[in-house]
Design goal:
124 residues; mainly beta; 7-stranded mixed beta sheet; 0% helix; globular
């Protein structure tokens, strides 16, 4: 089992940047593909980005491609999400998740472990 804790959320103006972190504890972090999801009030949880176990492959939703960058540091058991050019529609609770599978996926049901989330609010 792995425990996940997100941090780095906050309030930022449109056009600004934030960097989210997801710290993992428990079993070996590099055993898991990792993903970021977000959920805005009244909406379903939405895929944001995913990264393979060793970080060699990444996958982004069209809504964040070119603005967000997912990365990981297996030595530090941490995953990151650099968010640039933020828009008000990026406002949501952001969750990190761990997947024991091999194929990168955007399906929330495929992820086995979840963090508690961190709030990101982008003002216009």
């Amino acid at each position: 089992q792995v425990q996940l804790v997100e941090s780095g959320g906050g309030l930022v103006q449109a056009g600004g940047s934030l960097r989210l972190s997801c710290a993992a504890s428990g079993r070996t972090f590099s055993r898991y593909a990792m993903g970021w999801f977000r959920q805005a009030p009244g909406k379903e949880r939405e895929f944001v980005a995913a990264i393979s176990r060793l970080g060699g492959r990444t996958y982004y939703s069209d809504s964040v491609k070119g603005r967000y960058t997912i990365s990981r540091d297996n030595a530090e058991n941490t995953m990151y999400l650099q968010m640039n050019s933020l828009k008000p529609e990026d406002t949501a609770v952001y969750y990190c998740a761990a997947d024991t599978g091999v194929v990168l996926t955007n399906a929330p049901d495929e992820y086995d472990y979840w963090g508690q989330g961190t709030q990101v609010t982008v003002s216009s």
